[in-house]
Prior knowledge:
Layout (H helix, E strand, L loop, with lengths): L6 E4 L2 E4 L10 H5 L2 E9 L2 E2 L2 H14 L8 H13 L6 E8 L16 E8 L5 H6 L1 E7 L14 H12 L4 E6 L2 E2 L6 E6 L2 E4 L10 H13 L3 E3 L4 H5 L3 E6 L3 E8 L2 E2 L7 H14 L2
Parallel strand pairs: 7-8, 7-14, 11-12
Antiparallel strand pairs: 1-2, 1-6, 3-4, 3-5, 5-6, 8-9, 10-11, 10-13, 13-14, 14-15
Helix pairs in contact: 6-8
The structure holds N-(5'-phosphopyridoxyl)-D-alanine.
N-(5'-phosphopyridoxyl)-D-alanine binds next to α6 and β13.
Amino acid sequence: MSENAQTVFLNGQFMPIEEARVPVLDRGFIFGDGVYEVVPVYRGRPFRWQQHLKRLSGSLAAIDIENPFDDTGWTDLVYELIKRHPWADQFIYIQVTRGVAKRDHAFPKGVKPTVFAMSSEFSPVPEQLRETGVRAISLPDERWFHCDIKSISLLGNVLAKQEAVQAGAFECVMFRDGYLTEGSSSNIWVVRNGKLFCPPRDRLILEGVRMSLVDELCQIVDIDLDIRRITREEVQQADELLLSSATRELLPITTLDGQPVGNGRPGPLYAKLYDAYQVAKLR
Ligand code: PDD
């Protein structure tokens, strides 16, 4: 297999990515009717896998799609995908849609979900970006009220990310009714006076698998964490801002809306948490 060849899983079979085909009437294509997961793999092992599995079954249950596999089935599938690729560090993308049916908004009866999974090489954030931190812009959160479901209907997130990119930023920091929600594809953390804050895990954000991880890391490195609603002013006056996601791990935001965050450099809480993250992922 060439270095970059990708084998994907589609509806029970492994095949080269170029050969994978989904019918045009798949409800994922027609309605965005499905859910997904992104799972980092370090040294051949999926990281925080149980948490990803639990979130996947929660997302499926939330939109009434029967889980096509039990935990063992998913685990076997993911390890098989990992084994078929040469990279030590990978990320797995899993997508389940309601399946293929005549176009009608209501759920079709007796349809089998479409199951797709692929692996890509994990490309870490360039070291230089970790040293400088990244730029972000603030935006109104214009998404729906079920951001807790990891839905493939990502138009709101896509438009927000594009606005950030067009403004020369790496990510956006979104607010609803004056309170912090999250980024377009990441959770946001605020540091003030040596303490870490993050928004409540309600329907207005996706509860990242890294959220419970950061909770644990805070205990290990002795950082106070406060989970509560955070105002725009508190974000603007932050000493540090961080983002977290499966693909970016933890990353400092050092410029918000063109203004430096704190002293404009990655801060001490970021450094502590990032080091603890690196230890945790290789345990
Ligand atoms: N996105 N919030 C949103 C809206 C996200 O899309 C993501 C992740 C997160 C962080 O979740 P986690 O820690 O489980 O990665 C929060 C993935 C990486 C993506 O869509 O590619």
